[in-house]
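**User:** You know discrete backbone vocabularies at least as well as I do. Would you mind producing a protein record, from residues through to fold? Write it directly below this note and I will take it from there.

**Assistant:**
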Amino acid sequence: MKRIGIVGIGAISGIYLENITNMFKEIEIIGVCDLIRERAENAVKKYNIPKLYENMHELFADSEVDIVLNLTRPYEHYEVSRAALLAGKPVYSEKPLGASLEEGKKLAELAEEKGLWIAGAPDTYMGAGIQTCRKLIDEGAIGTIVGATACFACRGHESWHPDPAFYYKYGGGPMLDMGPYYITALINLLGGVKRLNGMTRKTFPTRTITSQPFNGTVVDVDVPTTIFGVMEFESGAIGSIMTSFDVRAHHMPIIEIYGSEGTLWVPDPNGFGGPVKLLKAGEGEVEIPVEFPYPGNSRALGLAEMASALEKGRRPRASYKQTLHVLEIMTGFQRAFETGETITLDSKYTREAPMKADMPAGILD
């Protein structure tokens, strides 16, 4: 049993608290902290958590904490993860690994120097839907992969999120916010990316929040809000991705994979389940039943998998070997746009083993 200390009890923490407590059997929450103490106090009461820390450094110093779960805002990921690693603690971080490639590289280097693992979200690709897609691809259901396309587009988060300003600041934007789901799914299905190109734009200079409690607040936009990217995978397949906070509506596919013998429609990578749809040469489109566990909202699956990996002495599936590659891809589109050059990636990525379909509920291999 690995004991988890959580830094940050914000909007995403609820599902982690629920699933760590009730779904996964090899991890437990030992303590929490948050800059807004009331949030941490409420979590302690609701989930019967043993410890409430005054600050993250007190948490890092606790010998009973086996893994630090970093649920802070994206621009805070680097400092929190760095401090945890320096204190000798393995880290599982919400996405992205860092708010810049430089931050990600420094964390990877520090983890290697300390002999520790840093892993991170998203873990949705470990769920039933995308694992079923991987099995189909690996078995040759659509033949040789020719290409892929992915799209996330909406009008932004300021109409519904309780504190949306950070989406338009350093570490924010649609690529760093939603891109991790799409890019992580693509590389787990198709393998690593060799080189890429991209174009970006910042469409609106300001955003007005219409949700509570900051209704009427005007936010200056500091990051690109529409990003188009083209990727060449190591396999030779070509992929494209669009992410945007500027779009009212669209009919683009979420993720489609094109093969020499058919097309695969991949489910929303922001979720864990289906539907998975397949069209093979000479046949009509069919929905494929998912063959793996965790079809529902299973956030903390990656954390539980990391805990199992540490227990068994192997590399976590969502280690920095993956999250750094994803970060280099996402930030590469902007670098390509700024330089006018095709970017060749430094990081190399090898797919980890697929998930196992026959494990007991709440237990990871």
